[in-house]
Amino acid sequence: LDTGRLAEIAGGDAGFARELVDLFMEDAAAHLATLTAAIGDGQAERVREVAHTLKGSASNVGAEPMRGLAYALEQQGRAGELRESAPLLVAL
After folding, report:
1. At 2, is the secondary structure helix, strand, or coil?
2. How many structural domains is the chain composed of?
């Protein structure tokens, strides 16, 4: 996490920053489970939707590496091309 970005988002409130990270972790786990199923089922549009949501959530807490991976998955879903999605999912 980019702690500077997170502090900025949380307005310098450490408790709020922790709450944001906790919520992000819960949501990210659910999104990863959904992505796993969607990739396994070849549901490119669902991959695009969930990856887009995850990308935004990651950006909101300063998780830039995760945001980049989610963006790549989003693009693969948009293109309907999921053959290279499994390594990205593992990296997430």
Report:
1. coil
2. 1
User: Residues 91, 31, 54, 73: is their CA dihedral positive or negative?
Assistant: positive
CB 7 within 8 A of CB 23: no
- Confidence class for position 60, pLDDT limits 50, 70, 90: confident
Whole-structure pTM value = 0.89
Helix (H) or strand (E) holding 71: helix 64-79
Using 50, 70 and 90 to split pLDDT, how confident is the model at 25? Answer: very high
Sign of CA pseudo-dihedral 72, 78, 83, 89: positive
58 contacts: CB under 8 Å, gap ≥ 6: 24, 28, 64, 66, 67, 70
CATH number for the domain including 9?
Answer: 1.20.120.160
Q: Where in the sequence is the domain holding 17, given as residue range(s)? A: 3-91
Cα dihedral: 17, 8, 59, 26 (round 10): 0
